[in-house]
Amino acid sequence: MNNMIYDVAIVGGGIAGYSAALTAKNLKLNYLWLGDKNFGKKTVKAEYVRNYPAFMGDGEGFVRTLEEQKAEEGILLTEKRIDGVYKDKNGFFLTAGKENFSARAVILATGVELSAGFGDDFIGRGVSYCAVCDGALYKNKKIAAVLYSEEEKDEAEYLASFASEVLVFSKYPVAFQAENIRLIEETPKSVSGKLRVERIKTDRAEYEVEGVFHLGKSAPPAVLCGGLKTEGAHITVNRDLSTNLEGLFAAGDITGKPYQFVKAAGEGCTAAYSVKARLNASERANILEKNQNQGN
Predict the structure, then answer these.
(1) How far is the C-alpha of 147 from the C-alpha of 235, rounded, in Å?
(2) Which residues sit opposite 260 in a β-bridge?
(3) Cis ω on the peptide bond leading into residue 258 (within 30° of 0)?
(4) Is the pTM higher than 0.85?
């Protein structure tokens, strides 16, 4: 367990998250930046970056420039995928599989899945986005795992250590060691059931399962953090990028269109300044309360 309480945890390895981390460092905040390396697949795969001031080139060139600045400024990225954000006495408690972190404030900059998973109405009733979080709940049960990248192979193997059988749906030619994994070369489309998941449907057939795991997809924001106000795939924010949850901010594509690097960078910066203002206000309030108590 990490006992450090950070001023702010920044969730998301893209441009918004990087801008927030860069600004947080300049504001002398004790920050924790969590996410994937290379500033996100969308960034490195961009054919041409047209709207970012002072840069001309493709996504790979853009990432190289960002990496140079990141190294020069000493910005640290912790390569973890956060699967839960919870309110606690210190502010927020974040989980990444079996690891956890604490922070006084959080900036969500996870981006938005342009091709989301399916069956989200069954979340908590058989649909999950986290193998480590929920895998043990399916001991000796038949489940399905939908792989959205080859990197999630190990998570499917992990599920196989609990389940009686794992049906893996992947467009990638993946080889598994576990004998109870069955690779099915079909495209999953939907899940169905009454109170819980009972089957998964593909473009060719239906399979009876008791759980479906989306491996490699980010959980919808309302699932990532309970009670968060959203509109579709986007988080509802105020002008200062605060959300309906005190101390929780959002930036980048997750707040809505336009899905542009320059917009994400600006919001990341703004969110970090908003966190600083909130923490300053909280400290002033604590000092005032302490002085009042001493005077009584």
Answers:
(1) 26
(2) none
(3) yes
(4) no
